[in-house]
């Protein structure tokens, strides 16, 4: 399992593991507000993805967002050989009956290994859409009520209202209003 994850993340370096690369906590202070508007907005923000993964890990369903992210990166893959390698890794990690992080999608049994020989960028699209909808209509709403989300939102608000932030805003105001 560990070797599979290491290999998987080496093929998809854009997807950080849950310990991940340090992400900037000094993103726009509207981060959580933007995340709350849609799952799409959440998935476009690296910090949002990090927090959502943290939540899904606690719910034992982190594989859903990992699969979704892997499919997004797969669509950008150039070259038949690289595409075959990544397609096989997605299949063995998430879709095969022996997958280490199997996702629960309809029709995965119809996706057999022969399709991996002639990969195309949208070959996982139907399955990716199923996982997206599962996250959107199930996990995402619980995430917005979770301690992970609420605590992050609270820390953003505290940072926004801190004396340092207000002082910087006053300095900026003086500079631009002169």
TrEMBL record:
SUPFAM superfamilies xref list: Regulator of G-protein signaling, RGS (SSF48097)
Domain RGS, chain residue ranges per copy: 38-149
The UniProt record lists the keyword Cell division: no
PROSITE patterns: RGS
Location of region: Disordered: 154-178
GO CC terms of this entry: cytoplasm; nucleus; plasma membrane
Origin: domain of life: Eukaryota
Entry keyword set: GTPase activation
GO biological process: regulation of G protein-coupled receptor signaling pathway
One GO molecular-function entry: G-protein alpha-subunit binding
InterPro entries: RGS (IPR016137), RGS10/12/14-like (IPR046995), RGS10_RGS (IPR037879), RGS_sf (IPR036305), RGS_subdom1/3 (IPR024066), RGS_subdomain_2 (IPR044926)
PANTHER family given in the database record: REGULATOR OF G-PROTEIN SIGNALING LOCO
Name of this chain's protein: RGS10 protein
Originating organism: Nothocercus julius
Upper lineage: Eukaryota, Metazoa, Chordata, Craniata, Vertebrata
Gene that produces this protein: Rgs10
């Amino acid at each position: 399992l560990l070797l599979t994850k290491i290999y998987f993340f080496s093929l998809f370096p854009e997807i950080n593991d849950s310990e991940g690369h340090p992400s900037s906590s000094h993103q726009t202070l509207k981060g959580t507000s933007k995340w709350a508007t849609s799952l799409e907005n959440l998935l476009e923000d690296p910090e949002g993805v990090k927090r959502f993964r943290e939540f899904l890990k606690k719910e034992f369903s982190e594989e859903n967002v990992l699969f979704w992210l892997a499919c997004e990166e797969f669509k950008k893959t150039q070259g038949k050989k690289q595409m075959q390698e990544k397609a096989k890794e997605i299949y063995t990690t998430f879709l095969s009956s022996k997958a280490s992080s199997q996702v629960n999608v309809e029709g995965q049994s119809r996706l057999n290994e022969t399709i991996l020989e002639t990969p195309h960028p949208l070959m996982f699209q139907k399955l990716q859409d199923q996982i997206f909808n599962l996250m959107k209509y199930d996990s995402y709403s619980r995430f917005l009520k979770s301690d992970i989300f609420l605590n992050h939102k609270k820390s953003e608000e505290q940072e926004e209202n801190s004396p340092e932030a207000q002082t910087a805003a006053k300095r900026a105001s003086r500079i631009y209003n002169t």
